[in-house]
Design goal:
7 helices; 28% helix
Length: 251
């Protein structure tokens, strides 16, 4: 069976988790990177998809949800994964499972995994680590067994309906103009079109979702969060989320 990793991964961590999972599957493999792909696509009954989303303030990112909504299955087996920075999953996983089922994917299993926080870099440093990888591989193997047995998700997924309201963080994303080399990588990766190609050191904060894609792709390290709101929140957030959380799996 053909396997496709479908993901929205601005900082690269969700993509990494899905790559670990995909290593447990044989056969043809491909990817659908929703940072770049914004079109329609249908998957067949004899295919498998692993769908990975980051958690933004307890939800699937709005743009990621819109792009994922353009994909559809045909009783396609799906593994649902949300990846978060050791803070809160809230409604993101139940939202992802609901959306996949709405789009005619047959969800066989679901997971919430933990990675290094994309905004507050003092949280979950080095994760996913070797312990995480062991658990992720075990989850993938059990998911494969369920697929082969033609079994669907049975566990109840935590979360609420209606989902939390979307929130926009008040943090400023800025660029050091002296460091920027105008490579335009940030322009090409920004899913919101918030960075003008004639002045990539600028950013439209009204459009920006604070997804961090421009920060993580910058080869010069020129972009980052700044401002009083960010500097005030950083130590508070890192202290409140210092206790290790473990990945959770549902079958």
């Amino acid at each position: 069976m053909k396997l496709t990793n479908i993901f929205f991964s601005p900082s690269g961590t969700t993509k990494k988790v899905l790559e670990i999972m995909a290593g447990n599957f044989d056969g043809e493999k491909s990817i659908c990177d929703l940072l770049y792909f914004d079109g329609e696509k249908e998957f067949g009954e004899d295919e498998i998809v692993i769908v990975g989303m980051p958690v933004f303030a307890g939800r699937i990112p709005k743009t990621a949800r819109a792009r994922l909504s353009k994909l559809s299955g045909n009783n396609t087996k799906a593994i649902a994964v949300v990846n978060y920075g050791n803070a809160h999953v809230s409604d993101a996983l139940i939202e992802l499972v609901d959306l996949l089922e709405e789009k005619n994917f047959n969800v066989v299993s679901a997971a919430s995994t933990v990675s290094h926080h994309s905004i507050f870099d003092g949280v979950a440093i080095g994760r996913p680590d070797s312990d995480d990888e062991t658990k992720i591989n075990e989850f993938a193997q059990k998911s494969l067994e369920k697929i082969e047995a033609n079994e669907l998700l049975n566990d109840e997924i935590p979360g609420n309906r209606p989902y939390l309201d979307y929130k926009t963080l008040p943090f400023v994303v800025s660029c050091d103009k002296d460091t920027c080399v105008f490579c335009l990588e940030c322009v090409s990766v920004c899913p919101e079109g918030a960075i003008p190609d004639d002045d990539p050191a600028d950013v439209d904060l009204d459009l920006c979702s604070r997804c961090t894609s421009c920060i993580h792709i910058c080869p010069e390290g020129a972009r980052g969060f700044t401002g009083d709101a960010f500097e005030a929140k950083k130590p508070q957030f890192e202290s409140a989320n210092s206790e290790r959380k473990e990945p959770e799996f549902y079958f």
